[in-house]
Amino acid sequence: MYTVLLVDDEQWILKDLRRLIDWEQHGFRIAGEAFSGTEAEVIAQSLKPDVIISDIRMPGMDGLALLRHISRKLQPAAVTVFISAYDDFGYAQEAIKLGAFDYILKPVKKAELIATLQRVAARLAEQQVKELAAAEWERSRSFVELLEQRLAETDIRRKLEACGLKLDHIDYRIVIIRTQEGADTCVAEQLGKLQSRWTELSLLAVRLGSRKWACIINNNNGMPFSVPRLRRLLYSLREQAAEHHVQIGVSRPAQRLKLLRDAFRQAETMAIHEFVTGKRGIACYSKQSGFWFEARMKRIMDADLQQLIEIAGQLRTPPSRLNVEGISMIQTAMQLRASQLYDSHAAEFDMTIGNALSEQELAVAFASMQEWLDVLLDLLRQREWLHDPPPRKSSSNTMIQEMLAEIESSYQRKLLIGEFAKQYHLNASYLSQLFKQETGESFTSRLVGVRMEKAAELLREGALTVHEISEKVGYDDYFHFSKLFKKHKQISPAAYRKQRGLLQL
User: Fold this and answer.
1) Average pLDDT value for residue range 437-462
2) Which residues are bridge partners to 241 per DSSP?
3) What's the CA gap between 315 and 369, in Å, rounded?
4) pTM higher than 0.85, yes or no?
5) Under a CB-based contact definition with an 8 Å cutoff, are residues 8 and 56 in contact?
6) What is the CA radius of gyration of the chain?
7) Alpha carbon 405 to chain centroid distance?
């Protein structure tokens, strides 16, 4: 229900306006009345109405002067509609210039008032959506800054409490929720239900992209965190949002706010566990260690070429305890071992289509663990490539130029070397070698570089928010985009924009 302040120096006109329509039936409630511009200014500052309907000509402070005053003092400013007995084009023109929404002639007709209110309601609804989006973006930005900066415990607490998280007792987990695009409303509803079902929890939910949410769930009552209960509630959330293919990653419990970054990384790692298993679900973090893992890592570092091939082949049926963190560590170890085995030719051994990749980068560069293994095994089996560059086909330059053009024109889409390999009827590892030989950099490095330059260009233009720019250049995960941008430009996207004097965040 939107609130309305009626203003006119003639009492009988106010009475007629009240009786002209059923205001509440149309979604409005008359919250106050004023008989002068001066009185209206005082009441408006107190009531903060959504709409002001005012006579334009009044003794003392007229409607135009009232509009000037409240535009400065009310934020957000009320939607203002003027009424007048005079068909005065000059007044109307000045009113619109000052930001008035509409101008109605007296006597006010019922149909005209209803039609105007319908347009006002549409404007207010649109304004509310923008305000909610701005508030949501501000929470996202503050949360990302918390993860990027190394702040003192007291500063972290102050920022989280400012976002609405209760921290009477500190015992929290971070939950990352990944969905298909368009699941925002459903996820927000389910998070609200989770909070209502477990009242001793304090929950801060932050949207980090069109398909990703981060939640800090803090147990305020000082009792031990009930993991089974949390899992039941998250399973309920997942079932309610099943059509959106939800994957949930949960961190280990933490009792210090300084561990927020670590907890986030743990939850983020488990939220892409589908990369390993091929199945969506709820995955709780456990550190990738233990005798079996350490023995495998030692075996990699002692392996010859044939043994590396065997180890990679065994990963096609990964142990249940293996997560993306472990895959990233194995991938790094294999690349290091390959470099040791083929020292002077290590530059040709580009088995990750780039440098050693983090968990998130692996999941972006490859559709699945199986695709990564395909590329890895191809390169390991083609030992001759490690001693001689791949033979240059006469058509290779044209092919690479086409790929470069595709990157330039379609950088906002998810581009994978595997898809190009299918298009050219080559295996991905061979195409990767050709690309690096022709360009001097990996496919992934070129793609990320183009995206970062496009992002910088959009930041300088200042027309879009940083969140919108993230999605515009191909990243539905704002936090991942922010990390990549900072890595390439040595400055965060928001700081880059501020540095250039642009205030749109």
Assistant:
1) 90
2) none
3) 9
4) no
5) no
6) 30
7) 28
Angle between helices 89-98 and 63-73 (to 10 degrees): 0
Give exposure, 196-230, as e/b (b: 16+ Cβ within 10 Å): eebeebbbbbbbbbbbbbbbbbbbbeeeeeeeeeb
Residues contacting 161, CB < 8 A, separation 6+: 167
**For residue 420, how far is the Cα from the chain centroid?**
28
Answer yes or no: are the C-beta atoms of 1 and 30 closer than 8 Å: no
Residues pairing with 3 in the sheet: 29
Instruction: Reply yes or no: is the peptide bond before residue 390 cis, omega within 30 of 0.
Output: no
Q: How far apart are CA 43 and CA 139, in angstroms?
A: 32
CA 363 to CA 271: how far, in whole Å? Answer: 11
* SS3 sequence of 271-314: HCCHHHHCCCCEEECCCCCCHHHHHHHHHHHHCCHHHHHHHHHH
Q: What are phi and psi of 244, to 5 degrees?
A: -100, 10
C-alpha distances in Å from residue 273, one per residue of 39, 216, 360? 62, 20, 11
Residue 406 has pLDDT above 50, yes or no: yes
Residue 313 tokens, joined: 């082949």
- For residue 253, what are the CA distances in angstroms to 163, 173, 256, 257, 355? 21, 5, 10, 11, 32
| Residue 340 predicted with pLDDT over 60 | yes
How crowded is residue 502: how many other Cβ atoms within 10 Å of its Cβ?
Answer: 14
Q: What one-letter code names the amino acid at 78?
A: A
The DSSP string of 229-287 is HHHHHHHHHHHHTGGG--EEEEPPPBS-GGGHHHHHHHHHHHHTTHHHHS--SEEE---
pLDDT > 60? residue 398 = yes
